[in-house]
Amino acid sequence: MKKRFTLKNISIALIFILLMIQSIQIDKTIEPVNPATDFISVTAANTEVAGLLKTACYDCHSNQPTYPWYTNMAPVSWWIKHHINEGSQHLNFSIWRTYSEKRKNHKLEECIEMIEEGEMPMYSYTLMHKEAKLADSQKLQLVQFFKALKGNANFEND
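The structure corresponding to this sequence follows.
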């Protein structure tokens, strides 16, 4: 008797694979943050700017991501963890003070550019995090904050 690939067999195989990959969980370890190196503390950001940064940026660009319920489901969890790892490697607000002045200014330029061009926060992120979608006035507020810091060698709150 010859086995045939039927829609039913393929569906069962896919369900089995999806169930099996659930055993491969992402690392959700949250590293402690030293306020002495964190961007919000170092720059003495006001409460409103700090709130915008925490809501729209810190999940991917710090050591303090939040992991919603859907990060328990592979392969979505793998995709999200990849974004978090990539984002915090590119810019990590939790270790801001450790950056050189040149790197800080470059990162501020990138922040300004990404916000002005509408690339950050990412559309894929704001789909699931409606609170992270920034109004034009909020974008302007962040851009102005970053511009005020850029080029100012003494912007650290020492």
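Residues 73 and 102 are 40 Å apart (CA to CA).
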